[in-house]
Fold each of these.
Amino acid sequence: MPIQVILDCDPGTDDALAVLLALASPELNVLAVTVAGGNVGLTHTLRNARALVSLTGRDTPVYAGADRPLLGAFVSETGVHGQDGIGGVVLPEGAPPAPGLAADVIRRILRDSVEPVTLIGIGPATNLALALTTEPALAERVAQIVLMSGAWAEGNVTPAAEFNAWSDPEALAVLLACGRPVVFATLELTAQALVTQAVIAGWRGLGAGRCLQAACDIQATVPASRRLGGAGAPLHDPCAVAWLIQPELFTARPCSARVDLGPGPGRGRTLIDRWNRTGDKLNAVVLETLDAPGFFDLIGGRLALLP
Ligand code: BDR
Ligand code: CA
């Protein structure tokens, strides 16, 4: 039986590959793609999500969601993702967005699904939090929440905070308090998923399909990470999806996690207690190591199955 999932995203170069990986993988049944503003504004992230889903030939519904965090101002990340979110790569216009708003749709799916649903969050957590905070009892219908979010050490948008956690820390706090396990693909994990030109060249050779080639075109626009010594570009978001498809590529550790909601320089920092020093309840799982060659093979192999 495939895992029933909702994929909440903000495409986003790395989100783009995560969307394609999820739709290419029979282990997952993507019930909806929900979209927030994040890497770039909602107008762009929604257009990108629609274009990516349509490129696969699938009719998975794509829903518009929040264009700003629960509190505070919206801030984009065009340095990595370009002004349009996908590095200027031109994709054919996708199908129109499905009617309805992301948080309402997430609640409806949770209410109606026969099986528990896994929430995958690879952008600011606003849509997921809005759904769970307006009808908290629906958390019982959530199998788990798998996030690309946070770091146990240094951030990437501030010295303290990772971009998705920092973009909407109150939303992340809602998820951490909802009573369902939250799985973190943190910056320490995604630093092991460094895409180089050689990785992209390897993928390109796997087929001529439009999805695989678009993924390579998009990934080729991402600058190597200064934070990681220029060794490559961390492919953050597909890690969260790959964990559900091939967990044997990872090692994981139960932990407790909270997020700093203060207004100061630590805002958005995730406090991930891998050694239970706080004695807090274990409300999360942190993914610690990644078999990077296996991960890249998974992505290339799956995207080569798409049109
Ligand atoms: C996360 O932030 C975004 O820039 C990426 O899409 C990813 O979800 C990495 O910090
Ligand atoms: Ca993202």
Amino acid sequence: MSSSAAVASQQPPSLFDPVRIGAIDLANRIVMAPLTRSRAAEGLVPSPLAVEYYGQRATAGLIITEATQVNWLAQGYISTPGVFTPEQVQGWKKVTDEVHRRGGRIVVQLWHVGRISHTSLLPPGEVPVAPSAIRANTKTFTPEGFVDVSEPRALGIEEIPGIVEDFRKAARHAMDAGFDGVEVHAANGYLIDQFLRDKTNHRTDEYGGSIENRTRFLHEVVQAVANEIGADRTGVRIAPVTPSNDIADSNPQPLFERAVERVNALGIAYVHVVEGATGGPRDVQPFDYDALRSRFDGAWIVNNGYTFEMAQAAIREGRADAVAFGSLFISNPDLVRRFREGAPLAEPDRSTFYGGDAKGYVDYPSLDPA
Ligand code: 8OZ
């Protein structure tokens, strides 16, 4: 997809050119990646600080929110927000109003963590759910601190439609909250990725085994969301080779090619692909991302460790329609302006990434107006 500006001038496209992604018009191709910050208030409602935080970053072409639960069992870390109660929807409405008032666009990332959770985060008597009862070798933040995740139970096949339905309802709530769209989180070892990959999916029913079966849950969730809010407001995030959260697949190339084909058939607005290990090295294992992209007709958003120069090259050479930046957006609310002016970039403070208050959240300054 090339912008009208680029077409008119016959110049190669730039990160600073507008682009249309499905039904969403972006002022530029610089996207704020989803970032877990664990600062939601009582009831997993986005706090007033979240209004300020996202508002400060509204010059991004598109903001993708932090991962947001579709139901009570979808939570895996302390103080991550939801979008399934009226209070949560009202909280998000304040966020979307502020971002829109400042000229930005914002979609909510919907997730279910599956096995990456702990009983202390779930309603009494509940344990984490997963495609198969295989405990992840990883830890999570809970009210009791940083602890091993709990042993999950395998979902009964009769429970799966209810989870798909919770994604559908959350997508409707997202529209009520004023979002421009929804990104389905199918990356980083959470529930949808647990169904996709064969290290975590040992099912013998129609949701396990073959690639066709392992991509079925992704397909059903994305179809439900797209039917509810429009395919042109629906995106998906994948991370084909990330080892995050003890996830792996014996043959990710054909698996993710088929996953992309299936969401392409639904006509969704974009695919957002994390290249390499999420938040880590880009070259963890060989993978042909061009082969994925050749199976998709909508917008292609890339992510993971991109510098300004790498991102500009990806756009110029047509390898992506937009580029998502994560940690740089934490410490540079005006990242778009800094890129444009070649201004120095502030380094993020990792100690304030998760939890806490305004410090490390809304106190990174923008450049002076002049
Ligand atoms: C960091 C900490 C907790 C969650 C992801 C939503 O990896 C996350 C996440 C990242 O997608």
